[in-house]
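User: I'm curious whether this sequence folds into something compact or stays loose and floppy. Could you predict its structure so I can see for myself?
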Amino acid sequence: MPQRSRGHPGQGSGTPRYPGTFLLAFREATAKLSWQVRKWHGSHVECLDAEGREHVVGLENLYRRARRHDRGNWPTVITEFLAAVSTGDAVETMPDDLAMVADRLLVRLGTPLKSMPADAKVWGRPLDATGLCINLVIDFANRMFYVTEKLVADSDRPGEEWLERAVANLLQRSPADCFQPIHEESDMLLCSVGDAYDSSRALLLGALLPETAALGCFVTLASRDELMVLPVSTEALEQVHMLRVLAEKTYPTAPYPISAEVFWVHEGIWRLFPIEIKGQEVNIRPPAEFVPLLGQLAPPEDDQPT
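Assistant: Here's the prediction. I'll summarize afterward.
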């Protein structure tokens, strides 16, 4: 099945519902405000403003508003609307001192953010060789802010120190039973607390699932709000392809998508665990570091064919 273009404005859920002039005016407005468009859906757009705040903008009402004006004025109308949204939503403001909001620091795991103005560049670090990124956020009751490099530099403390605090805060917020079996006949676990930090809980596997420390876990993060985990075992090798199948179903249309890939997380290190599915054929190419474990995962001699 051909893959839908992820870069075409308005195509996130089927064919575009709005004229191209409106979508181009929306892009012009976001560029003027230094907003970053993160993902287009059929009727809404995920954005990040210049101060690192997330917004989900509904297009239907905005289009109705724009239609009352000449098309040449659409960029101005949309710019004014987005500016008002940003101002009206900003009940909480970005602090000047990280130490004052240390208890609100959390960690966000996802895809790397695009380039932003120098004074709004977000602090982050890559997650091993996965292509994913770890960011710091300040979580308020109605708003979250991405922590900028400037804010970290002004704190006179390294970002890794703040990251350690953010991970500790997330652990404190995580229910002890946040991982639940997906199906009684499977060892797969689902984390869906629904607080916008489920994917980030993949960074807490050592604390939340200590019994998996010896061999690690297979992990998928199709979206910000869905984390699936399969503890490595002999039986898991027969199930791991299903993680890929489930992630591929969810990823294309999920709000805040992250990845459809499967990762092997062991001793705090993340590695891609490539799985290719073509029809009924499944091809798995484990990373070199996983191969020595295969001896431990072989079936008992009594179960092996003679």
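Summary: Residues 20-89 form one domain. The chain is about 25% helix and 25% strand.
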